[in-house]
Task: inverse folding
């Protein structure tokens, strides 16, 4: 019996794989990335990525702005943990300008940065849950992320893009309400986190979905420039907070959790463990802040008239304060010459600021080392040979933030 | 001290309003019937069952996540079903910076949506380019697609997004069912080079 | 015995003699330059030499100095020895006419996108790069936007009146 074969046009090759386009707007990408995958059945054969869909030219923009105005740009890098970026930038400026910050400022910063780390990891982990089919965790913890936002709001008036702090410290002292809210968070959140992790960590379905998928060896991870929780999940205990302490992190007692296989499950566990460490760091920092008494307890910024805005009352009544106010706002402060690279441990890795100044009023060049831009290139290798549905989980467990990736 | 005012006299919530049914449009009630314009009925139905398509690119998308999640709960306004397929949805919510590389994609998504369709530009970037007056950013999405409601803020608070959503509901409720066939509407779309 | 900036400097001079120059330490980080032709040799040496072992590439970026004739573009590498926890900044300069620089992608997988970004922004032609095309900007772009001669703002915009923004 004769079969009817489909005749292919002249010159075409019989293709055994399917090309599948995911993105740039796709619910599974949680951000604007495009992946063109070759799939054989459900197995991913290869993948080609396109990024840059929200490239906003931060680096060029920063060349036009005085230092304090760049804080607003850093907000919009990794918007899940913007205070870390703000403070990373301020720490870079302070190092560059050789400003010593008071201990209380450092500890307050640590509180805020760790809160930001919690909110960042919380989003990432709950999204991993969503992608493995567990929506409950996400809906449940989002409510507790609001507690963190309320603390931010009390301190700086904004929820997400905080623009928090100034070069030298904070814009104003923390109010009592802020501390009350922090206490509330410290009381309520551990219970929630406990429940959240008991929903996932020993959950059979979750373990089956995440164990052994999207794994990477420590060696490859380092070659690919992984940093942060993703590198630690692969078993390298590199943490900027420990290796190059900033903002007095050396005064705190915490452990750096590491994984072994670098797969999605390990990344989840490392982030989870880091949240517990963050809670412990916040507790320690809060104790240290409480220990300041008298005039010390009122310190919330360093004494740097060139970069820290004077009080509004003084601006209205004193000539000198008015001059400084004018000079700062108009960006008429000449910077010293030099170059500095200063890293901080961001939500998803080593966030570096490379600042070059030629003695002008704005940076001559400012380059951001954006962790997820660098490690996203490993994605095709992570998902190769795996199932398509695991590729989605891998993407969310890498914690890719489009705003940071594209700058 | 800076003058900060607290809301120390909270307004009592009017429970009767909060759980009220959708208000019936003007019409003639009678025994077992209610006569009104078709347009009002359709508007009433449409406005309380909008299916949003979140086109979230950056920071505002995270605030939308909060709006959608348990604390602010956008579903209360009849948009429980957040869809990601443009063909099923009727409200395009553009949240975040739209770069020039993204603009054709956004336009394509808009074209794929079926009529009637509405658009909210959430946040400064989507409305005007925001702080990013740079070579790579589209200076407001209204350069490529028509926009119904703009929500200011960088990012807007969830309350602001909900407010913008309610403004859209007002527009949808009052819209004549013939608007989409009118000459003005066709001229509007033509001015964007659509159809 | 922990590695110090001086030891790194000595080792580099012992290996490359007068080809590595401009040693300086700022904010605790050693920086040096070399001619662009030997950039791979230097990186390979820093990577392979067991006592140096700069095996982690933190960052690649470029800088445009329009006033340095013949060396307008500078490619900067930040390297990190994770074991000894010591960082290093290494730069090579190139002219606008001939922007060829050898690629580091064979040594570091992470260099791939960083070099593409540098190409996208400054037009550095990384010789031997597997896929050197624009990454963040649209493919149709015909200039390198982060070079100093190009303006920040979009030149085709019509909605924003310069006078209103104090730029008139």
Result:
């Amino acid at each position: 019996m004769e079969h009817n074969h489909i005749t292919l046009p002249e010159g075409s090759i019989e293709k055994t794989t399917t090309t599948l386009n995911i993105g740039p707007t796709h619910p599974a990408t949680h951000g604007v990335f495009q992946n063109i995958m070759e799939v054989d059945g459900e197995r991913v054969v290869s993948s080609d990525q396109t990024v840059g869909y929200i490239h906003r030219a931060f680096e060029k923009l920063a060349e036009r702005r005085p230092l304090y105005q760049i804080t607003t740009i850093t907000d919009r890098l990794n918007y899940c943990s913007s205070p870390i970026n703000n403070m990373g930038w301020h720490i870079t400026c302070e190092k560059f300008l050789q400003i010593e910050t008071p201990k209380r400022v450092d500890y307050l910063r640590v509180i805020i940065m760790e809160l930001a780390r919690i909110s960042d990891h919380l989003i990432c982990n709950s999204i991993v849950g969503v992608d493995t089919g567990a929506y409950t965790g996400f809906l449940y913890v989002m409510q507790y992320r609001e507690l963190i936002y309320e603390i931010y709001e009390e301190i700086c008036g904004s929820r997400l893009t905080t623009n928090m702090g100034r070069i030298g410290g904070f814009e104003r002292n923390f109010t009592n309400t802020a501390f009350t809210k922090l206490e509330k968070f410290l009381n309520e959140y551990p219970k929630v986190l406990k429940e959240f992790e008991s929903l996932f960590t020993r959950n059979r379905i979750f373990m089956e979905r995440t164990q052994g998928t999207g794994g990477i060896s420590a060696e490859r991870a380092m070659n690919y420039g992984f940093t942060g929780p993703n590198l630690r999940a692969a078993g390298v205990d590199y943490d900027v907070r420990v290796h190059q302490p900033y903002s007095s992190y050396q005064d705190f007692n915490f452990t750096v959790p590491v994984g072994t296989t670098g797969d999605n499950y390990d990344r989840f566990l490392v982030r989870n463990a880091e949240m517990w460490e963050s809670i412990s760091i916040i507790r320690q920092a809060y104790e240290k802040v409480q220990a300041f008494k008298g005039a010390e307890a009122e310190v919330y910024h360093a004494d740097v008239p060139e970069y820290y805005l004077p009080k509004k009352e003084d601006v209205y009544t004193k000539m000198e304060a008015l001059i400084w106010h004018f000079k700062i706002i108009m960006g008429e402060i000449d910077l010293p010459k030099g170059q500095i690279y200063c890293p901080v441990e961001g939500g998803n890795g080593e966030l570096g600021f490379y600042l070059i100044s030629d003695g002008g009023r704005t940076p001559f060049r400012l380059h951001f080392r954006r962790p997820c831009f660098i490690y996203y290139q490993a994605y095709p290798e992570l998902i190769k040979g795996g199932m398509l549905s695991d590729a989605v989980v891998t993407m969310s467990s890498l914690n890719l933030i489009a705003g940071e990736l594209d700058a | 001290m800076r003058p900060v005012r607290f809301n120390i006299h909270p307004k009592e919530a009017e429970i009767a309003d909060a759980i009220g049914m959708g208000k019936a449009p003007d019409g003639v009630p009678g025994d077992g019937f209610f006569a009104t314009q078709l347009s009002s009925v359709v508007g009433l139905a449409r406005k309380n069952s909008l299916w949003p398509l979140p086109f979230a690119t950056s920071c505002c998308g995270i605030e939308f996540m909060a709006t959608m999640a348990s604390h602010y709960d956008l579903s209360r306004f009849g948009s429980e079903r957040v869809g990601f397929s443009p063909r099923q949805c009727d409200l395009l919510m553009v949240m975040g910076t739209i770069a020039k590389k993204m603009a054709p994609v956004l336009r394509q998504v808009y074209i794929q949506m079926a009529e009637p369709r509405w658009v909210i530009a959430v946040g400064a970037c989507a409305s005007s380019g925001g702080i990013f007056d740079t070579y790579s950013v589209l200076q407001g999405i209204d350069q490529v697609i028509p926009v119904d409601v703009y929500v200011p803020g960088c990012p807007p608070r969830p309350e602001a997004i909900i407010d913008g959503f309610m403004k859209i509901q007002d527009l949808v409720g009052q819209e004549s069912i013939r608007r989409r066939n009118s000459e003005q509407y066709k001229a509007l779309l033509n001015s964007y080079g659509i159809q | 015995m922990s590695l110090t900036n001086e030891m790194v400097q000595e080792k580099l001079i012992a290996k490359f003699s007068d080809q590595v120059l401009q040693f300086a330490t700022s904010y605790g980080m050693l920086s040096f330059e070399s001619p662009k032709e030997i950039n791979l040799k230097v990186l390979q040496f820093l990577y392979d030499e067991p006592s140096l072992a700069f095996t982690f590439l933190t960052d690649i970026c470029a800088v445009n100095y329009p006033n340095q004739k013949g060396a307008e573009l500078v490619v900067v590498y930040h390297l990190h020895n994770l074991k000894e926890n010591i960082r290093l900044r290494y730069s090579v300069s190139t002219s606008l006419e001939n922007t060829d620089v050898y690629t580091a992608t064979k040594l570091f997988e992470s260099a791939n996108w960083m070099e593409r970004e540098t190409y996208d922004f400054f037009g550095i032609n990384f010789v031997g790069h597997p896929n050197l095309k624009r990454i963040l900007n649209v493919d149709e772009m015909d200039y390198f936007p982060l070079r100093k001669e190009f303006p920040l703002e979009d030149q085709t915009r019509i909605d924003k009146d310069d006078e209103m923004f104090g730029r008139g």
